[in-house]
Design brief:
The protein is α/β, with parallel strands linked by helices. The protein is built from 13 helices and nine strands. Helices cover 32% and strands 12% of the residues.
């Protein structure tokens, strides 16, 4: 959607999820096929290849599995781009991509592409810095074949999360949850709702008790122990008591969270409709509210059951963010000469804007410097360190 809004013409799409394909066909042209993706999949000639290999193997929202077969699709993506040699590519993934498998997935992505002549920016961003009403940290890679693409500059200052407001203070604040939900009517009591997906699910008696006790910003840990979900209790204790390996622990649990109306939302995931509570009403968010936070227009219709729709919404790149990336890429494509097959290089590598780094991230930075510093020949090492 974002690339289409930037006047790109999408000529081919591939997925192996049946409900996602039906949603695509319902909202776009019928040029999507259902298939597993390999580096040998036939593709038409195109100026840009865009993709996001499934993130479930990386996401900190769940238990990381370094042996997840879906992780290998990163290498498949890079080999496919290297074979097709489009003028540009865009890659998107969750922030856990950077340190998964000790950082090996970063090299799965970069090695084939740099060897093929691509000039690449690889950066972690917060979607809130691009006007998206949620804190959504993601990794973006943008590459040009023999030319330097422009990485889009932030348009907004993020706030409402630790350290978020330290960067880009000169920019206007990003939209809030209230901005995202503005104009929606009272949700219907049963599906499909108007607009589609804007209906409530009656919470259970104990969930309603939990919801009524939570104030904006509070989570399940602020409730009495007897009201904790069993799954929350197990996960909270597992992190410190059962010796679960660090890479399998997942993120810090919160179980339920009442959102602030005057701040950006937390990141929308496939669990949002059972975890995120409306800031002023005693209910969970609706599917349409989640789609609004993801910047989907109300005219966009999701096909599938509740679980399938929540996965589609939670896994999506916010269309407004995609449009910003696409618009910048279009300008780069129109202003640059024809592709040349010069040596590839890593133009920038910004895995965090924080001054501190975890041991895993620090180790990755050292490996990136060691492998790609030759390609970064026009950047002083001190500047590269600052970018970290």
């Amino acid at each position: 959607m974002g690339f289409q809004e930037a006047n790109f013409k999408c000529v081919c799409a591939i997925d192996n999820n049946a409900s996602a394909i039906l949603t695509y066909q319902n909202n776009f042209q019928d040029h999507i096929g259902q298939s597993d993706i390999t580096e040998n999949v036939p593709l038409p000639v195109a100026d840009v290849i865009i993709g996001g290999p499934p993130c479930q193997g990386f996401s900190s929202a769940g238990m990381r599995r370094t042996d997840d077969k879906r992780n290998s699709l990163v290498r498949v993506f890079s080999e496919l781009v290297a074979r097709q040699k489009p003028s540009a590519f865009v890659f998107e993934n969750v922030e856990g991509f950077l340190t998964s498998s000790n950082g090996d997935r970063v090299f799965d992505l970069l090695d084939p592409l740099i060897e093929s002549g691509y000039h690449i920016h690889l950066r972690k961003i917060n979607a809130a810095n691009y006007g998206i009403p949620q804190h959504r940290k993601r990794v973006l890679a943008i590459g040009g074949l023999g030319w330097d693409p422009v990485f889009p500059e932030p348009t907004h200052m993020a706030f409402g999360a630790p350290g978020a407001a330290k960067a880009h203070r000169h920019l206007p604040p990003c939209p809030t949850l209230a901005h995202a939900l503005d104009g929606l009517p009272t949700p219907a009591e049963r599906p499909p709702g108007v607009p589609q997906g804007h209906y409530t699910r009656q919470p259970s008696e104990i969930d309603l008790k939990r919801i009524q006790l939570l104030q904006p910003g509070q989570t399940m840990k602020d409730l009495p122990d007897e009201l904790w979900h069993d799954s929350y209790r197990r996960r909270a204790y597992r992190r410190v008591m059962d010796g679960t390996p660090t890479e399998r622990r997942g993120g810090a649990p919160f179980g339920l969270r009442r959102l602030y109306s005057d701040q950006p939302s937390k990141a929308i995931t496939s669990g949002a409709i059972s975890e995120f509570i409306h800031p002023t009403e005693d209910r969970f968010l609706t599917l349409r509210e989640c789609a609004r936070i993801q910047t989907f227009p109300d005219s966009f219709v999701f096909i599938g059951n509740v679980a399938e729709c929540t996965i589609q919404i939670g896994n999506a790149v916010p269309p407004r963010l995609a449009e910003i990336v696409a618009s910048g890429l279009k300008e780069s494509l129109l202003s640059n000469p024809a592709c040349t097959y010069a040596q590839g290089k890593l133009l920038t590598f910004i895995p965090t804007v924080s001054s501190g780094k975890s041991p895993a991230l620090r180790a990755l930075c050292e490996r990136v410097e060691a492998r790609y510093l030759a390609e970064l020949h026009y950047i002083e090492k001190e500047q590269l360190t600052l970018w970290h």
